Amino acid sequence: MKVLGIESSCDETGVAVYDTGAGLLAHCLHSQIDLHAAYGGVVPELASRDHIRRLPMLIKQALAQAGLESRDVDAVAYTSGPGLAGALLVGASVAESFALARGIPALPVHHLEGHLLSPLLSADPPQFPFVALLVSGGHTQLMRVRGVGDYALLGESADDAAGEAFDKTAKLLGLGYPGGPQLARLAEQGVAGRFRLPRPMLHSGDLDFSFSGLKTAVLNVVSGPDWDPSAMADLAAEFQQAVVEVLCAKALAALKKTGLKTLVVAGGVGANLHLRQTLDAALQQRGGRVHYPEPALCTDNGAMIAFAGAMRFAAGEAVPGEPSVRIRPRW
Ligand code: KG4
Ligand code: ZN
Predict the structure, then answer these.
(1) Is this prediction's pTM over 0.90?
(2) What is the pLDDT of residues 107-117, one digit of tens each?
(3) Are residues 156 and 279 in the same domain?
(4) Is 326 inside any structural domain?
(5) Quick one: 136 and 284 in the same domain?
(6) Does 299 contact ligand 1 (Cβ within 6 A)?
(7) Residue to probe by mutation, ligand 1, list 269, 298, 305, most atoms within 8 Å of CB
(8) Is 211 within the bounds of a domain?
């Protein structure tokens, strides 16, 4: 079965084709970073318009890359939410129209399920069951995953997501957009511990997170009388260390609680090198293992949506009856 996947929830337009027999056949992506950079963040209206501009071309490109005609596609999967309403509408409309025209099913997919399953697309995929740490710009969650569609939420952030904390802190330090990767790059040049930031909820005894206070703590440092801007890298390193320490401690606690040895990390913050090194070392010590998506599939993409859709079709998921553009921005 060949599934066309469409992702348009935020500032990346992604189209891919996943074949349940042959694997990933095509993976095309257009990033809107340059479009939003001047505004210091994603402008929803501009995002929607650019998805409209890019999608037809990307679909053509993906089909060509896969060596397919549009009539060879068996089903369409698209990101239904969560995300920006206007941006989601574009992908959903295109996907439903494509499916209607070809007389094939269209399946709305949860964006986080895409991230969650994306490590299964790697050459050495994890086996079920595992604990998943989902760390994106919009979510920070720990899940127990027994199989496709069998997810139990173990803990999540009460306020800012880890990626959001990176982005907001980067902004208040005057770094460019997108902030997370830039802050991480700056942190590599600094030394953690020269400043002391809190480790929010480290000892809360549950698997929940809170990151908004960390950003405020950084604000207090940079607006204090003793602030020396030449120490910016050290502050960035301490911020990164604080986030990584909490994520790592809670992920280990989730493994302990579930008795599992496999951790899957997905979502944009999963690209963070310090997080990876810390988790790898901790799991190695405990005889466990961490799985990540391929680097190209860490941030938003169509491949994870095509794959999640394909897994659901393969599991016999019933497709919603009447064609209808289904979006759930706050899903
Ligand atoms: O999964 P994703 O591409 O989009 C969402 O679904 O949100 O994640 C984007 C988030 C942003 O907040 C970005 O700043 C963060 O992931 N991010 C990073 C790094 N690369 C991306 N955060 C920390 N370190 C990185 N290297
Ligand atoms: Zn995402």
Answers:
(1) yes
(2) 999 999 999 99
(3) yes
(4) no
(5) yes
(6) yes
(7) 269
(8) yes
